[in-house]
Amino acid sequence: MAAFVLSLILLLALTGYSSGANYCVCKDGVGDTALQHSIDYACGNGADCTGILQNGPCYNPNTIKDHCSYAVNSYYQRKASSGATCDFTGTATLTSSPPACKFLNQLLFSSFCFPLF
Q1: Is 69 exposed, middle or buried (0-12, 13-18, 19+ CB in 10 A)?
Q2: For residue 27, what is the DSSP state?
Q3: From the CB of residue 112, how many other CB atoms can be counted at a distance below 10 Å?
Q4: What angle do helix axes 32-44 and 64-79 make, rounded to 10 degrees?
Q5: Which residues, by range, are in coiled-coil regions (predicted)?
Q6: pLDDT (tens digit, 0 to 9) for every residue of the chain, 117 residues total?
Q7: CA 102 to CA 80: how far, in whole Å?
């Protein structure tokens, strides 16, 4: 069983994961203050933001927009089934393209953390 799970993880890492899922990302052209408010809201209300902490696997690219996209996507993936939307007062939108750094745990599991680039 462990070999199967490891094989699945390696396959997804090599080929990329695509389920037709929607990703929540921060919009271009939004000011840094508004993006920071979205990060603060998402991280304070259920998103797993450990990946964008300094030395975290998704700290780079170290831009407020990339960190915002990571945070709002984490929030959206965790909360969409209970009615959460991807708007964040107009700073975010749904797309079929994943954020710059995505995690397998944001897509499939809640307890594993493997960066996929």
Answers
A1: buried
A2: P
A3: 11
A4: 30
A5: none
A6: 555 444 444 444 444 444 567 999 999 999 999 999 999 999 999 999 999 999 999 999 999 999 999 999 999 999 999 999 999 999 999 999 877 776 554 444 333 344 443
A7: 17
Calculated CA dihedral for residues 37, 59, 102, 82, nearest 10 degrees? -30
Picking from 37, 105, 53, 31, the residue whose alpha carbon sits closest to that of residue 74 is 105
In DSSP notation, 88-116 reads TTTTEEEESSPPSSEEHHHHT-SS---EE
Which tokens belong to 82?
A: 């209970």
Among candidates 3, 9, 113, which has minimal Cα distance to 53? 113
Q: Tell me if 86 sits within 8 A of 72, measured CB to CB.
A: yes
The count of C-alpha atoms lying within 13 angstroms of the C-alpha of 7, restricted to the half-sphere facing its C-beta, is 4
Identify residue 80 by its one-letter amino acid code. Answer: A
SS3 category, 76: helix
Question: Which H or E element spans position 26?
Answer: strand 23-26
Amino acid at 110: S
